[in-house]
Structures are given as structure tokens and as C-alpha cells.
Amino acid sequence: MFKKVLIANRGEIALRIIRACRELGIATVAVHSTADANSLHVRFADEAVCIGPPPSKDSYLNVPALLSAAEITRADAIHPGYGFLSENAEFAEVCAKCSIGFIGPKPDVIRLMGNKVRAKEAAREAGLPLLPGSPGVLKSADEAVEVANEIGYPVILKAAAGGGGRGMKIVRDAKSIASAFATASAEAVAAFSNGDMYLERYVEKPRHIEIQIVADVYGNVVHLGERECSVQRRHQKLIEESPSPGVSPALRAEMGKVSVDAMKRINYSNVGTIEFLMDENGRFYFMEMNTRIQVEHPVTEQVTGIDLLRTQIMLAAGEKLPFTQAQIVMKGASIECRVNAEDPITFAPWPGKITAYSAPGGLGVRVDSLAYENYVVQPHYDSLVAKLIVTAEDRPTAIRRMKRALAEYVVQGIRTNIPFHRAALDQEAFVQGVYDTRFVEQMQASEAGTARLKRAIEESP
Amino acid sequence: MADKKKKSVVAGSSVEVTPGTSFDLDALKQIVELLEASEVTSLDWRRNGERLSIRRGPPPANVMQPMSMPLSAGVQVMPAAPAPAAAPGPALTPRPSAPRPTAAAEAREEKKGHVITSPFVGTFYRSPSPDQAAYVEVGSPVKKGAVLCIIEAMKLMNEIESEVAGKVTEVLAQNGQPVEFGQALFRVEP
Questions:
Q1: Do B106 and B176 fall within a single domain?
Q2: Taking CB atoms and an 8 Å cutoff, what residues of chain B touch A353?
Q3: Which CATH architecture fits A207-458?
Q4: How far is CA B47 from CA B13, B41, B44, B118, in A?
Q5: Which of A16, A179, A241, B94 lies 20 to 30 angstroms, CA to CA, from A420?
Q6: Distances (CA, A) of A68 to A73, A98, B123
Q7: Which CATH class is domain A4-103?
Q8: pLDDT of residue B15
Q9: Residues of chain B neighbouring A73 (CB-CB closer than 8 A)
């Protein structure tokens, strides 16, 4: 087991790692930029080293400074957290060369999954389902008809040279495809000077469902169930939950088995998450894999009882997975709301000093946060201030508990998206558990949603 | 008339300012409290030769002086060799909760002279090698660009140069001690 871990990160995840290390009896080293000198993780760690000025590239991404800090503190392992260097294969390799443990998967699998195109190929070879589509550019309207009939409707025609949502046409049945192809190609030539088109299955109501994987270096792989992360804005997750109200036990078992089999085939080790897109019929397709611990890991911890950070550190130290698939039981329901320092309506970032702070508590309430009274939220980094996680015996109780906890949460001096969360949890789609990645835009476009949001802002303590 | 004291109220605040007198402690306290409750980070007020300047938030990075450029540009290079052997020197002691080296160095700035701070994380050495004399001692005259010390990082020896000409008045770090970014190393009085 490691004797001393250097946390190459900041904020709430640095705190989470320090806590796991402390419970394992491992000494901790916090590194920080000058802007983070008064950060909680710096105060909680056994030792701290200032590694650079505020910009991330000169501090948290500064590999020589990180390695030097590990050298002078004699740390024997580095935990990269999430973001920053956590999915940087070169960094993982350099750590290995310096005989410093890297708490994460092996460099070659980080590299494989880091390239999104190669990841899809690897996923396909490993047996993971991919969104069906044309093998390449469509040569003719006839080929378009053939491919579309094969993969099933609805499909979407996409211009190969397009992007940003442009050059796309949705086709819902066989009789429209030929003419749609002709029109779309002509439009593409006019807009992008390139009429090349390809085809994909179109998912109308996509849900973001991800599977948590844990694996040791001896070939043992276990999945810890799914998380639903469909409440997102511009691909930034806001609310996550486990289990997903859209996933039946049978579907969970199927997704889990497919994921575990694939991970065994690529010799995966340590923790990771496979992100899928799920359509309204329960068909799921591989999107990408994250070879690190994720922000939303707490909801999985809460329903499975597994300490993911402790498990991750033990796996990195070469220990065998301490549990089997049969021993994993998901109990109850857990929801996480990401509390960001941002305007609840416009989502504009809102750094500044927290002048009053009081976190919620009580049964089933967990707060993972870097905040405290008089803490200054920095403008240089992400806006995550806290993760509020609730757990309850079932989903309706979890929703009530989250609303209760959000109403208790006092964060003054900055603006937060707490009112957004309070309004979102009242949305019919969320309460019913039938929502997808269009949730946030639908809420913003609806009168009821906007009114709820305004009321929540007014009611903020 | 100069001796007719007229009180004026600063718009948007509850602080009264009497022309001709300095701010008293109470007024200052009120202003600071007002600032803390707002999102204002800096206030600069001048009038009739009086000036009030308040800044809040963490000190800007590199508040001291531009980073010394070491002769050997070692910063970017990845070490090809495996891990270094256990380096001599004490481990860093647990940190107090007070603000970090830049603030401590700033406090020292009130003394005369230029504080040279470390641009790297590494180990501080006062001489080119263990059996040679230190580059400088207290009282040593230095030219601009003179090497003051070495910061060793990942087996690379980075020479730290003085940004100013003058005399070394204080040695602020210990030989063989690990130093962090921004840590005070020397005071040089021009």
C-alpha cells in the first residue's frame, strides 16, 4: 500500500481523495496554485506545496512542478482526480518512469479511450453496441435507402463537412429517404462546398446512462450499476441519479454484462465509466469511456455502499478486487445536484467571496464541498462549489429529501444554481422519471419551468 | 472658508467624510465591511492630497518581481532517468492555516530591498556543489544577473539569478531545504 499520496488536483475532489487516504492511513500532500492557498484541501492535507501561479497550465497542469513536488515530499503515488491530467496518458507514463504510482488505469488504455474515434473502434471490437450508421460516406441515394432500411428508422442524414448542428436532416420513413438525400446533398454543396453525406440512427429522446466499472490487475471486473445524467446543459451535467428510472433490472444486467465483457477484452484496470446513449426503446449505444473517477461517483457509492475512492487506491496498489459481482446490490435511490457558482437563469459564472455558508444535513444528506464562510470562489477554475447528494429508500422520497436539503442550503455572497435545482426537481418530467438530454432546454422554454425558477430565486435564503 | 467644517455623505454608503480630516478607524471599518458584503474588489479614492486605497482578495501572483530566468532552461524537460534517490533535507512541515508564501513575502517587502522568490518547486542549494563555497553570503555584493543559488528539480540544477544589483542582506531559505513556488529565498538591497 502507498505511504504517501500527492493529490494532483484541487477543490472538492482533492478533499474526497484526502479523506479516502486518511481512512487508509496514507499520508497526503496537497499541491496548489497561489490562488488556492486558502483552499480547504490545502488545510486538510498533511503537507502542502505551492506549485505555481493561478493559471492551470502553470500549476495543476504543470507536470515538472508536480513531479518535483512529489520528489521533495517523497510521495510514492499521485492521484490525478478528474479533469486536469487524469486522462493524460503521457503523464501516467512519466509517473511510471519516475517510479511514482499513478492512481488510475494503465497509460495505453488511457490513450486508447482518449481518442474518441479510436475508442469507438475499440468499443466495437470489444463487443459494445454502437449507434448504427453508414460505414462511411454514402455513394448514392440508393445506398442511403439500403442503409437506412437496414439500421431502422428514424435516421439522420449528416453532412460530412458540416458541424455545429448544421447540415442535418431527420428522416422518419422509407418513402422520404431518397428525396431527403438529394435535397440534403444539394444543400451541403451550397453551404459547405462538399456534398458528402453519411447516415446514423437518430435517437429522438436520448438519455445519458453510464455504467461504473471497477477492475483489478488480475482480470477481475465488476460493474456497479448505472447512473443517469440526462439533466445537462451544453454537455455539462447538472443532476445525476442512481438507479436510473428508465433502466429496468433486466436492462441493467444486460448493459452491465456487455460492459464487463468489453473491459475484460481490453484488459481494463482500476476505475472507469462507460457512457451510453439510450433511446426510448431501451436500446443503448456506446458513446465514450472515461478512464478516471467521475464527479458524480457519490450516487453510486450511496446505493451500493462501495467506497469508490478507497477501492480505486487499493486497486492501484495492486490489490485484488475485494468483492464479486454477486455481492453488489443496489439499494434505495440517490440523487446528486451540482451546486455551481453561477447565475441560476443565465448560467453565467459568479466567482466571489462566500459571506455566509450553511450546508444542509440530516438523514440521508451528504455534502462534498470546498466551500466555507469567507472562502473566495476563484475565477480561474471551474464553478463547482458543492455536490449535494441525498439518499433515500425510494426515488420519490429522495426527491422530497433533495428539495428539503436545497431549501436549507445557505450560500450568500455569490450566486448559485440552487434555485435552478429546486425548480428542476418540480418539473413533471423529472418527477415522472421520464426525461432525456433535452430536459434543460425544455424547462427553459416552458412557462411553468420559468415561473418555478423565478419563484425559487425569490425564496432563496 | 477653510475652517468651516462641512460634512458630506458618500453616495450609496453610510460613511460620512469630513473634508480636511483623515479617515478615522470607525469610518475605515465601515468602509471595509461595506466592501466585504459587495462584489467590489478594489477601491481607490483621492481628494485634496488624501488618498484611500483598498484592495481585497488574494494577492496577485508574482506580486514580487518577474521570475528569474535560470541559465539552464530546465523547466520543460521530462526526466528520462528513473526516480531520484532519496534526497537529503527535511520533509516539508505541515502548513499553518495562515496565507501562503506570497503573503509572507509581501510582509517582508515592508523591509527595504528586493525579495527574490523561487520560480520552481525543488530543493534549495547555496553552493554549486557540496564541497564548494556558497554563491553568496549576507553582505555579498551582487550584480544584476549574478547567480545566487541553485534550485534542483527532478535532477536538473536551475541557477537562480538576481534581478537587481546590490547587496545580499538576508538569506531566507535553508540549504538543502525543499522550497515551493513563490517561497522567499534572498533579500537584496539595491
A1: yes
A2: 36, 57
A3: 2-Layer Sandwich (3.30)
A4: 17, 20, 10, 39
A5: A16
A6: 9, 11, 9
A7: alpha beta
A8: 45
A9: 91-92, 178
Under 8 Å between Cβ of B188 and B162 = yes
Instruction: Report the alpha-carbon distance of residue A320 to residue A316 in Å, rounded.
Output: 10
Which domain covers residue B162, as residue numbers? Answer: 102-189
Residue range B95-148, pLDDT digits in tens: 443 334 444 445 555 678 899 999 999 999 999 999 999 999 999 999 999 999
CA-CA-CA-CA torsion sign (A134, A136, A137, A142)? negative
CA-to-CA distance for A397 and A373, rounded, in angstroms? 30
Distance from the B20 Cα atom to the nearest Cα atom in chain A, whole angstroms: 34
Residue B23's SS3 state is coil
Phi first, then psi: give them for residue A430, nearest 5 degrees: -70, -45
C-alpha distances (whole Å) from A101 to each of A1, A75, A76, B123 are 10, 9, 6, 22
Cβ pair B39:A352 closer than 8 A: yes
A244 near A281, Cβ under 8 Å?
Answer: no
Nearest residue to A415 via CA among A358, A325, A345, A319: A345
Is the model's pTM score more than 0.90? no
| Ranges of each domain in chain A | 4-103, 141-201, 207-458
Omega of the bond leading into A243 within 30 degrees of 0 (cis): yes
| Structural domain count of chain B | 2
CA–CA separation, A265 vs A405, rounded Å? 43
Catalytic residues of A, which ones? 292
Q: Compute the distance between CA of residue A409 and CA of residue A349 in angstroms, rounded to an integer.
A: 19
